[in-house]
Design a protein that fits this description.
Layout (H helix, E strand, L loop, with lengths): L1 H8 L2 E3 L4 E6 L10 H7 L1 H27 L1 H31 L8 H12 L1 E8 L6 H15 L5 E4 L6 H10 L12 E4 L17 H28 L10 H12 L12 H48 L3 E6 L2 H11 L6 E2 L6 E7 L2 E7 L10 H12 L3 E10 L10 E9 L2 E3 L4 E3 L3 E3 L2 H9 L8 E8 L7 H10 L3 E5 L2 H9 L4 E10 L6 H20 L7
């Protein structure tokens, strides 16, 4: 029923019997109303009512069978019905028992609290089944695309562990949706962040079962009082008790009337102990119950507030993470970044148009990776792609990493990494008699500047921090390179995309920096050195990210 309803709503992602998932709206809200939607929302109520209805109908059938076939068949059917009803009741009572246990057990873990609340306040993947261990990312990519189509790019997706059917898929989903800062190896729920991080707009309202514990204890006390009253009365009246509450059933009836300050018309106790007990029941039970109801309500409100504050802090930590966007411009650079992140191309997200690899939470930051075209003039270049990426994903930091050429071969080596703390953009005015440089020198974002200055240098290569030239020209000329070295004596090297990165980020108040490995000296391109340089640049960037440099405290 629920899968059929999900298919009608467009919430079923179906790749076959062995691979499918079901999404659910927050608090199961949705447009329109109908019998199927009501049944889906009130499923547990329907099961309970249906179970009781089956029980009563079956009781009538059993009574008829007793008359027609005799007792043995009816007894067997009665046993089967009893087992069925007990199963239904157990399934319905289990959440209440779990709630009662929560009052005496140790405080639940944050992820257990989130598992109870998130599926009702966020979109949730309540069922995920994938039998084939190969390429589970295909199903998850369709889940992300369907969520974007149904709810837009601003919603998080909760993934309860109990809704995932296989152990392998649980591990895949936990890595795919890893926004919650929990330390448990197998969290009860994981969260996949949206492209844009909106503020939380509603809180969950819960009810508790603590008051029912008091009612159960009070019922036990009243039953015990009834037993005492019946004993006193039967001992006093012997075999001629008449209208005195001398049996447990009549005593319990009399006690029930006394709870409401009433006396039953046909029951009158004769002993002083019974009358005193009735007076105490009348004076104590109802007022105490009202006071206890108020006290328990206030206590449980405080209990809920504590849990919700912990949950709110957990979600604030998830939705308040800094987002770091890594940019590369060539296949060599992309493969080096994916290899260092231990990710594959299956992690790609197409929901915002431009493909983005969601690398997950690394060092406390949500890390994305995107490839743009080289240079600044083509339609897929950084100048055109990065504004779209910033608009859709809202990063706080942009890091351009990859390969460049070095200008200080007397001290530098192939594979060394240049961190562009300052960027010199080249913009030439060419006249008849002179060539004048009109570009400006800009500094990297101050937070990125500080983090890459403070980073520890790897032992495998050297890191050069300083001025980096940026020009939309592929330099492969010894004479041009010599002119650049002479004209900019402080420059450590040169590359092609940094100026476009700076231009796209400055208007959006996003910090940027360029980190690139030296693959040549501006002439004589070396493919082998490109792989080494790209790998070293990626290594330095991920070392900084993994160190917690972007963890918001």
């Amino acid at each position: 029923m629920q899968i059929y309803r999900a298919e009608r709503d467009g919430r079923l992602i179906w790749r076959g019997v062995g691979s499918f998932a079901v999404l659910r709206r927050p608090a199961d809200r949705g447009p329109g109303f109908g019998p199927l939607r009501w049944v889906d929302r009130q499923w547990y109520v329907v099961v309970m009512v249906a179970g009781l209805a089956v029980f009563f109908v079956a009781a009538v059938v059993v009574a008829v069978l007793c008359r027609v076939f005799g007792q043995p068949p009816a007894v067997y059917l009665s046993v089967l019905l009893l087992v069925y009803v007990l199963g239904v009741l157990t399934d319905q009572v289990t959440p209440a028992v779990r709630g009662l246990r929560s009052l005496v057990r140790e405080a639940p873990r944050p992820d257990q609290v989130a598992a109870e609340q998130l599926p009702y306040e966020q979109w949730a993947m309540v069922l995920c089944h994938h039998e084939d261990g190969s390429r589970p990312a295909l199903l998850l990519n369709e889940v992300a695309a369907r969520l974007n189509a149904l709810a837009g790019p601003d919603v998080a997706l909760a993934c309860p562990r109990k809704g995932i059917t296989t152990r392998h898929m649980r591990a895949v989903v936990a890595k795919w949706a890893d926004a919650l800062p929990v330390e448990h190896e197998e969290p009860e729920v994981s969260v996949r962040l949206p492209r844009r991080l909106p503020p939380r707009t509603h809180r969950v309202v819960e009810s508790g079962a603590f008051f029912f514990v008091y009612l159960a204890v009070m019922a036990l006390l009243l039953a015990s009082a009834s037993y005492l009253v019946a004993g006193w009365e039967s001992a006093a009246c012997g075999s001629r008790c008449g209208n005195r509450p001398a049996s447990w059933s009549t005593a319990f009836e009399w006690i029930g009337y006394r709870v409401l300050f009433q006396n039953p018309p046909d029951l009158v106790p004769g002993t002083g102990y019974a009358r005193l007990t009735g007076l105490l029941v009348a004076v104590v039970t109802l007022p105490t119950t009202l006071l206890m109801a108020v006290a328990c309500a206030r206590y449980f409100v405080r209990y809920l507030r504590t849990r919700q504050e912990a949950h709110a802090a957990l979600m604030a930590a998830a939705l308040g993470r800094d987002r770091v966007l890594l940019l590369v411009a060539t296949d060599v650079e992309l493969e080096a970044a994916l290899r260092r992140a231990r990710a594959t191309r299956d992690a790609v997200d197409y929901s915002a148009g431009h493909p983005v690899f969601r690398l997950g939470v690394i060092g406390g930051a949500d890390v994305l990776l995107a490839r743009v075209g080289p240079g600044v003039t083509s339609p897929v270049s950084t100048a055109y792609s990065l504004p779209e990426l910033i608009a859709n994903w809202k990063p706080q930091f942009v890091i351009m990493l990859g390969i460049c050429f070095g200008l200080r071969e007397e001290k530098q080596s192939l594979g060394d990494v240049i961190v562009g703390l300052r960027l010199q953009t080249l913009n030439m005015r060419v006249g008849e008699t002179e060539v004048r440089q009109r570009g400006e020198v800009v500094a990297a974002g101050h937070r990125l500047f500080e983090r890459f200055v403070a980073a520890e240098d790897p032992a495998a290569f050297k890191v050069w921090r300083g001025l980096l030239l940026s020009w939309d020209v592929l330099v492969d000329s010894a004479s041009l390179r010599a002119w650049m070295k002479a004209s900019f004596p402080d420059a450590e090297g040169g590359e092609m995309e940094g100026a476009a990165v700076r231009a796209a980020t400055v208007r959006e108040f996003v910090e940027c920096i360029v980190v690139k490995g030296i693959c040549d000296w501006g002439f004589g391109k070396n493919p082998d050195a490109q792989q080494l340089a790209a790998a070293n640049a990626a290594s330095l960037v991920f070392d900084v990210v993994e160190s917690g440099a972007f963890l918001r405290g």
